[in-house]
């Protein structure tokens, strides 16, 4: 696979329109490949007079990050609206060797879908929320955008555990999943990008702000039937999207880490963001549904109502005598803080349950426009609308079930630390 580097300043720009999202990505050159796919270098300077999205230029290095804002902002993509957005970059700049201190998951260049859909503009749905008439803004930090993908995975069509037949699919997905701050305690709207293409003709590309559970409310990571009022819903008009944001609580952590013969960090700290997403027509009919679960095994926080900002920090458990030197805490020095690269808890071990996917668009147009929440689907654009692509296909009222992807991967790298 070819990887990409910063081009010489004399190189002409190549701007390609990438179906179905018509994203113009500015990437040239080549270098060696890495274990997760080809690396990408910064883009050339944005076109003169370019308009920048609100998500662009929001990252600032900490005192331990060695890359500058200018190097970071070089990783950009022109979105379907002509605005410049941040996009995926490696945790270590391949040109200068400097470190960004955060990562965005798996390099999308290795996906079989990359040539078709292009680079993912981070914050695209957020950018158009106000323009759609929603009535409130929703901004998300830069570091929480996480990409995962798989090529040639086997998926099965059927409901109730009985598969009708299996097909081969490619998936490329991105969720904004911040696991270091209190944002997800009260905010339930998070940007998801989901591209699926299957050998039976099932396929869609969706970009939306999907509400996950109720705003202001969490689900206990240990007791999934127990809801926790975590604060004031933000924004107050966020709809209930179904699904749940299951985040471990202090009581859950104490039960699973501090009891028994060995601490059970993996089960105690796991976050599960369970999505119930839809693209709907103007009349409210479902065109596409998908419900992936995005899971994190090493978040740098847990919910603690008694702590400042309700943020419990798992690394502080490593100072307790009964678990010093055990499992994740082995070799963790007493001076390691939650945002130290030496901390074993920084949200780099993630996986995605692809779960069920359904398309109801037999004989329909492949280009649809919805608002940023995936509603009011029409065949012509309207203020604040986002272009979606849906195959002219129908799964016959059945779900196409996918596997777990990314379970064996860690995205830790030189310099990576929370917030990540």
Overview of this structure, please?
With 420 residues, the chain is mainly beta. The protein folds into two domains: 122 residues, no CATH class; 265 residues, no CATH class. It has six helices and 23 strands. The strands form four sheets. The chain has a 15-stranded mixed sheet that branches. The chain is globular. The N terminus is likely disordered.
The overall average pLDDT, rounded, is 87
Distance between the termini: 27 Å
- What is the overall silhouette? globular
Structural class from helices and strands? mainly beta
As residue ranges, the low-confidence spans are 1-38
- According to DSSP, the number of beta strands is 23
- The quaternary organization reads as single chain
- How much helix is in the residues? under 10%
Radius of gyration: 21 Å
SS field, number of helical segments? 6
Order of helices and strands: EEEEHEEHHEEHEEEEEHHEEEEEEEEEE
Beta-sheet strand percentage?
25-35%
**What is the count of structural domains?**
2
Largest beta sheet, briefly? 15 strands, mixed
Condensed summary:
With 420 residues, this protein is mainly β.
What is the element layout, followed by pairings?
Blueprint lengths: L23 E2 L7 E2 L2 E2 L12 E2 L16 H5 L2 E3 L4 E4 L27 H4 L6 H4 L17 E15 L2 E15 L6 H4 L2 E10 L4 E9 L5 E4 L6 E3 L14 E4 L2 H8 L7 H5 L1 E4 L2 E4 L5 E5 L2 E4 L5 E2 L7 E2 L37 E10 L7 E4 L15 E5 L9 E6 L15
Parallel strand pairs: 4-6, 11-13
Antiparallel strand pairs: 1-5, 2-3, 5-6, 7-8, 7-23, 8-9, 9-10, 10-22, 11-12, 13-14, 14-17, 15-16, 16-20, 17-20, 18-19, 20-23, 21-22
């Amino acid at each position: 696979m070819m990887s990409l580097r910063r081009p010489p300043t004399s190189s002409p720009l190549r701007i390609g329109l990438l179906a179905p999202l018509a994203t113009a990505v500015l990437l040239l050159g080549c270098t060696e490949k890495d274990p997760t796919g080809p690396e990408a270098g910064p883009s050339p300077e944005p076109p003169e007079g370019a308009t920048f999205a609100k998500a662009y230029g929001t990252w600032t290095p900490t005192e331990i990050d060695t890359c500058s804002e200018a190097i970071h902002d070089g990783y950009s993509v022109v979105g379907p609206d002509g605005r410049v957005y941040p996009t995926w970059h490696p945790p270590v700049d391949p040109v200068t060797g400097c470190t960004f201190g955060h990562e965005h998951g798996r390099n999308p260049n290795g996906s079989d879908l990359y040539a078709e859909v292009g680079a993912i503009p981070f914050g695209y749905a957020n950018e158009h929320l106000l323009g759609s008439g929603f009535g409130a803004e929703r901004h998300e930090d830069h570091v929480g955008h996480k990409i995962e993908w798989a090529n040639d995975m086997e998926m099965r069509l059927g409901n109730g555990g009985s598969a009708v037949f299996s097909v081969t699919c490619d998936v490329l997905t991105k969720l904004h999943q911040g696991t270091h701050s209190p944002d997800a305690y009260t905010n339930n709207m998070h940007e998801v990008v989901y591209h699926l293409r299957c050998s039976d003709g099932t396929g869609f590309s969706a970009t939306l702000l999907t509400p996950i559970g109720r705003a202001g409310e969490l689900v206990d990571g240990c007791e999934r039937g127990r809801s926790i009022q975590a604060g004031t819903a933000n924004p107050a008009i966020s709809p209930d999207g179904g699904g749940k944001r299951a985040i471990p609580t202090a009581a859950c952590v104490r039960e699973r880490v501090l009891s028994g013969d060995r601490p059970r960090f993996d089960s105690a700290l796991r976050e599960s963001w369970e999505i119930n997403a839809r693209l709907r027509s103007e009349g409210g009919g479902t065109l596409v549904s998908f419900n992936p679960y995005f899971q994190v095994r090493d978040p740098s926080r847990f919910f603690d109502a008694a702590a400042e900002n309700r943020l419990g920090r798992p690394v502080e458990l490593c100072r307790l005598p009964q678990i010093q030197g055990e499992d994740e805490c082995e070799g963790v020095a007493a001076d390691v803080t939650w945002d130290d690269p030496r901390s074993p808890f920084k949200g780099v071990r993630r996986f995605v349950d692809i779960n069920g996917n359904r398309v109801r668009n037999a004989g329909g147009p492949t280009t649809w426009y919805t608002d940023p929440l995936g509603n009011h689907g029409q065949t012509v654009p309207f203020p604040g609308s986002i272009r979606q692509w849906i195959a002219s296909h129908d799964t016959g009222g059945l779900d196409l079930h996918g596997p777990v992807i990314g379970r064996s991967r860690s995205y830790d790298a030189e310099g990576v630390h929370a917030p990540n």
